[in-house]
Amino acid sequence: MTGGSLRRGQEFLAMHSGVSSGRPGIRSFHKTGSVYTRLVLIPATHVSGHASSTHRMHAALAVSLHFTCCRWQRRRPPRAISEPLSEPLGVEEASAEEIAEYELEKAVEAAEEASERATDPKGPDALALARLLAWARSNKLFKVHPAVVVQDSQLVVSAKIEKDNPIIGLMPEALLFADQSSENVDKVDAALELAWRRLVEEGLVKRPAVEATEVQSCPWPPQYLLALPRRSAQPILWQQTLVDELQETEIQQEVQMQSERVNQWFNDRCTSVGVDASKLSKLREQFVESYAAALGRAAWLQGRWALAPLIDSIQVPGTSADPDRAALKANCRLELEDMGGGRQLLMLVSSRTLEEGVPLVREVAATAKQMLLEYGTVIEADASTEMIVKAYLAESGPQAAAVQRLVKGALPGRLFGDVIVKGLVKPFARFEGEGGTRMDDLAAAIGESFLKSSLILSAKSLDEIEALEDDEICDFFVSLTGEEKRCCLQELLKLMGSCLGEFTTTLADDERLLRAPSSRGCRRLAVAFRQQRKQALRQLIEEIGEAADRAQDSAGLPFAVMGKRSEAS
After folding, report:
1. Same domain, 113 and 130
2. Is 480 within 8 Å of 439 (Cβ atoms)?
3. Alpha-carbon 432 to chain mean position
4. N or C: the chain end with fewer CB closer than 10 Å?
5. The domain containing residue 134 runs over which residues?
6. Domain boundary among 117, 148, 172
7. pTM beyond 0.70, yes or no
8. Statement to judge: residues 184 and 294 lie in one domain
9. 314, 155 Cβ separation under 8 angstroms
10. Number of Cα atoms under 13 Å in the Cβ half of residue 529
11. Is 240 helix (H, G, I), strand (E, B) or coil?
12. CB 377 within 8 A of CB 320
């Protein structure tokens, strides 16, 4: 073995020694002027998986290098050594303290991962769902298409179904309600009542006494209770660290407020019915689970919020927590057919032709934020997408001071002179009238606080801006031409670009995380949601940039001359 080969071997060991996060592994020490390499190895019995194979490779390489060094030293011509070897060449086991520290770190990591995995959504058991389907087929209150079957814990079609064909029908008597009326209440209140009713049906709390004037509600079928999801995917069930992964303060606050509302309702109800205090902790966990399931399944039917057995077991659109399942798109819808006498038949109808093996996915009228908070899925951003974002003015001066003074929602930053502008954006909103311009579209997509801030930052005189009423800001922005338009758009571009700084990861980071094999569960939902928000915001920023680039090309010609915008304008 030549001296060059030996040096390359030493460089390889130095480059690959140790493991990440400071864990004990292979350590190499080099003495100047001598051929000396000392290695400390973790025994293979203390590591596992890929790390184990890596350590075994390093150990084998170290031993091979040790004997090669010895042979090379014996065969080479004698020469002076500037520094004698002070320690023997060889392999040393890690100390007991290093091994203990390494094992402690691994145990902590495993405990954190296990705790996070415990919150992973779990759908209904395939057998329980099949029993629910069989029960519905045998029940006279249901009509089920013969092609509907259970596959991979979801309802799919086993044969082609043409567009606009009924798939499942429910008589009004098959709907499940809470004991108390859910009229004139929002969906959260209804879900709370339905969740409590589920605890009653499962025998976890006492059934309330029925007054002589009241009608006893029908019991919920056990087949339905057993087919409910074992753990839902809504953020209210997530650990706080996973809620933080959403990287959006407004969403995090909504999750917190919803959690406080649910817990307060639960406390009040338990107090009113006299629940044993020793059972509160376990019962609270079961109640929150039931609430999340009801929130994702309740539908407004016959003037009340209700659950529809079998139909509400059908999936909803979006990206789920399961990385092995592609994002779903709706292929069926709910319809109500009048039966006379104030009774209505609930039907699930195909929205397009369904091919064999296609899972049933029902339409849901909800925004992207509602889909996450209420259903636990992530859909692509659309025209309904709204975001509360913050823009940062790092350059202090009279104009920045004017922004803080004149713009609603503007706040001082951490450093003296810095200003934070908080406002609403609707990245995919467009001007709904006829003959609109690109400026009309931007005015529809960007909140007044940002529009006014950009007008102030680009204005030569603030007198005209200060005189504007809030409802006049959009029209003034749209009317800009020439250099004023270009300068305003440049300032708006800076403002919107600074909003991306609110996110602690980039789009590239999120894409890489979603591709990782470990991307699953609630963390996958959090990453997918924030990725969609960033993509929407980035697209809006690109549109502002294009408008700024083209502002100078129009040479300040008014709209009356330019006419209706073209596709490229």
Report:
1. no
2. yes
3. 30
4. N
5. 126-375
6. 117
7. yes
8. yes
9. yes
10. 32
11. helix
12. yes
Tokens of 368: 């992207």
Helix %, strand %, coil % of the chain (to 5): 50, 15, 35
Query: Do residues 345 and 336 make contact, with C-beta atoms less than 8 angstroms apart?
Result: yes
Q: Which long-range contacts (CB under 8 A, 24 or more apart) does 117-121 make?
A: 117/521, 119/231, 119/237, 119/238, 119/239, 119/242, 119/521, 119/522, 120/231, 120/321, 120/520, 120/521, 120/522, 121/229, 121/231, 121/232, 121/233, 121/320, 121/321, 121/376, 121/521, 121/522
DSSP state of 464: H
Residue 529 · residue 372 · CB < 8 Å: yes
Report yes or no on 568 lying in a domain.
no
Residues 252, 363 within the same domain? yes
Chosen domain end from 375, 404, 421: 375
Place of tokens 């922004």: 403
Two tokens at 215? 């009608």
Check which CATH number belongs to the domain holding 541 and give it: 3.90.1420
- For the chain, the domain total comes to 3
Same domain, 549 and 428: yes
| Pair of tokens at residue 417 | 């002179």
